[in-house]
Every structure is written in structure tokens, then in C-alpha cells.
Design goal:
The chain is mainly β. 0% of the residues lie in helices and 46% in strands. Strand 19 and strand 20 form a beta hairpin. The model has no long low-confidence stretch (mean pLDDT 85).
Length: 340
């Protein structure tokens, strides 16, 4: 038997579907690794994996068809086929009650899925079908952290709905002496937290870097340990960032100097203190922050509402907008929704 489905994503790694018996010997899996689809299964005798060479994480719909007959298997991704045959032995995958799409509720064994692919995926799914012709249920048995898939966009951007939504870009980000943050934003609300790096163990006196929208102004705030550095930019009368256009923001923290530039406007700078290191190594929050995380550097707690793209951090390779560590709330990885 087998199944087929269509998906679209910008993520390079993540679980498309997975299930296993309690011992995680018999299993069935499908995941992205470096933008390529891998299918794996075990009927009780050996692990079998098939992978295609075509890269599919360009944000357009891709069709995956999987067929298995005992220890024979075929994986087809957008018309590209790959086949595999296992050793003779057991032929039935036993003890699998559910298929989990987009993630998995418990820890996945390392030998079943590559370590960097062992994460939930930000993707849209449609047209799930068994080869027998039987359709999947219209509603899943259970959903967790699932949001609406908006219409396709040509641009590669992320949409934050702004109601308690946020992502953890990475679990352990170190700020240090120098960092340059750049991004394009298209906000739909004049107030919202764009990103926050705070010392969660020291909410009152810990170091931090925070960027927020506050009543239409862009505000950045940094603590190196000897006083808060803050600078901001406010639009001229009659202007607004909520104009359905992209606006570029660049934040530079170089030792004890902080700089903020919005679009082509002159940068605003501030220099303060003698300490040069923001001693923060913690979760990197984008678009908002959990209710239980506190910091003296955060003035705006409401989530950012709007689109964000081209997010980059120089002198760091661990932040990838389309491969976050986790996401919460209504976030779409496929750009701003198109008005009907």
C-alpha cells in the first residue's frame, strides 16, 4: 500500500510525517534533509531509507507519492522516482496507531531520522490520499500548533498574525561584543515586539538586546551591564511604517556603540558606558515573547503583526528565519496573506 500528498515549504529540514511502535523498531517516516525528501521504514528486520536528489523547498507545491509492497518501496517526488528492496523477512509494519504530520509528539530516535531533520516543519499540506482511493479524515484526531495556510506569495517572507505569536529562532544565541541585525518589515500594527534577546535568569539586571515598534516608532535597546543604551527613529508627520510597503531596519551593536537605521534615513547612534560585551546567551525570540519571560529591557509585550523577510545576523550563522527551533501561535511561512 501507500499514500500521496502535496506540501510546500521554505524549510530545509523537518518531519513531513512519522509514526512508530512503542519500541520504535517498526516505523514509517518521511522528512526533509537539506531540502530533499527522504522516506524510511522498518517492518521489523532492517531500516530502509530512500531519498531523491531534487531540492523541493522553494515554497511551491510538491507532490510526494510513496508505495510499499512488503520490503519493496518506491518514493516519487515531483515525478522523480527512487526504488529500494530490503532483505527477506517480516513484511508488516506493526503497532502504528497514527500518522503524525509536521512533527511528532515524543522524542524520535536518532537512527530513525537525521538529527537536524528531527524537528517540526513549517509547511502547508493538502490532498492527502491513500493509494486505495480512501481519503484522509477532513479533520485530524488532534492538532497542536497548527495555523492556517494563506495563499501563495511570490516573495519569501514570514507573516505574524500578532496574537500571542512568536518563534524561537534558536535556543542559545550569544550576543557578545559585535552583532549586526538587518531585516525588512511590513507591519500591520504600529506597536509590537520585533525581536528580543534577554537573560532569562536575571530579568531585573541581566544584559539584553531588544527591538520593538512602539506607537509607530522603531526603538532598539541594549544593556552591556553598565546602563541601558537606547536609540529610536520616528516617522515624520503624515508618514507611517504601516503603509503596506517594505521597510529596511539595520541595528548595529559594536561594543559600547548602538546604531539604528530605517530605510535610507540617516542612522541614529548612541554611545554609553565602558563595558563592551552584552553577556547574553539565551533563546532568540522573533515576533513576540512568552508571557512568563520577563526583562527590564522589554517595554512592549504585544506580538509583532505583519510580515518579515531578509532577516540576517552578521557574525553569526545560527539564525535562520525559515528553520526556527519552534513556533507558537498563528505564523505563516508563505508571506503576507492576499486580500480576497
Amino acid at each position: 500500500g501507500g499514500l500521496s500528498f502535496e506540501f510546500r515549504t521554505f524549510a530545509s529540514n523537518g518531519i513531513l510525517f512519522y509514526s512508530a511502535n512503542n519500541a520504535q523498531i517498526d516505523f514509517i517516516s518521511c522528512y526533509l534533509q537539506d531540502g530533499k525528501v527522504t522516506f524510511g521504514f522498518n517492518t521489523g528486520s532492517e531500516d530502509i531509507f530512500l531519498s531523491t536528489d531534487n531540492v523541493v523547498n522553494d515554497g511551491t507545491w510538491k507532490k510526494v507519492t510513496i508505495y510499499r509492497d512488503k520490503v519493496k518501496a518506491q518514493l516519487t517526488v515531483d515525478g522523480i522516482d527512487v526504488n529500494a528492496v530490503g532483505n527477506p523477512g517480516a513484511t508488516i509494519i506493526n503497532g502504528i496507531p497514527y500518522l503524525y504530520f509536521g512533527g511528532y509528539k515524543t522524542e524520535v530516535l536518532k537512527r530513525k531520522i537525521n538529527a537536524k531533520s528531527r524537528v517540526p516543519i513549517s509547511a502547508c499540506f493538502r490532498r492527502l490520499m491513500w493509494h486505495s482511493g480512501m481519503k484522509f479524515p477532513k479533520k485530524p484526531v488532534k492538532e497542536q500548533f497548527v495555523s492556517k495556510c494563506y495563499n501563495e506569495q511570490q516573495e519569501k517572507s514570514v507573516y505574524f498574525a500578532g496574537i500571542n505569536s512568536y518563534m524561537i529562532a534558536t535556543e542559545a544565541f550569544f550576543v557578545g561584543r559585535k552583532k549586526l541585525f538587518s531585516m525588512d518589515i511590513k507591519p500591520q500594527n504600529m506597536t509590537g515586539l520585533i525581536f528580543a534577546l534577554v537573560d532569562q535568569k536575571r530579568p531585573e539586571n541581566g544584559d539584553f538586546v531588544v527591538l520593538e515598534l512602539n506607537d509607530g516608532s522603531v526603538v532598539v535597546r541594549v544593556q552591556n551591564g553598565d546602563g541601558i543604551m537606547q536609540t529610536s527613529w520616528t516617522p515624520l508627520d503624515g508618514q507611517t511604517l504601516c503603509d503596506n510597503k517594505w521597510h529596511k531596519i539595520v541595528v548595529s551593536k559594536v561594543e559600547k556603540t548602538l546604531s539604528l537605521q530605517v530605510d535610507t534615513n540617516p542612522p541614529s547612534k548612541v554611545k554609553q558606558g565602558t563595558l563592551t560585551v552584552a553577556n547574553v546567551k539565551d533563546q532568540f525570540f522573533l515576533g513576540g515573547i512568552p508571557a512568563n519571560v520577563r526583562s527590564s529591557g522589554i517595554n512592549v509585550r504585544s506580538s509583532y503583526q505583519g510580515c518579515l523577510k531578509n532577516f540576517r545576523v552578521t557574525m553569526s550563522s545560527v539564525v535562520e528565519l525559515f528553520n526556527p527551533a519552534s513556533m507558537f501561535g498563528d505564523i505563516s511561512m508563505f508571506g503576507c496573506p492576499i486580500a480576497d
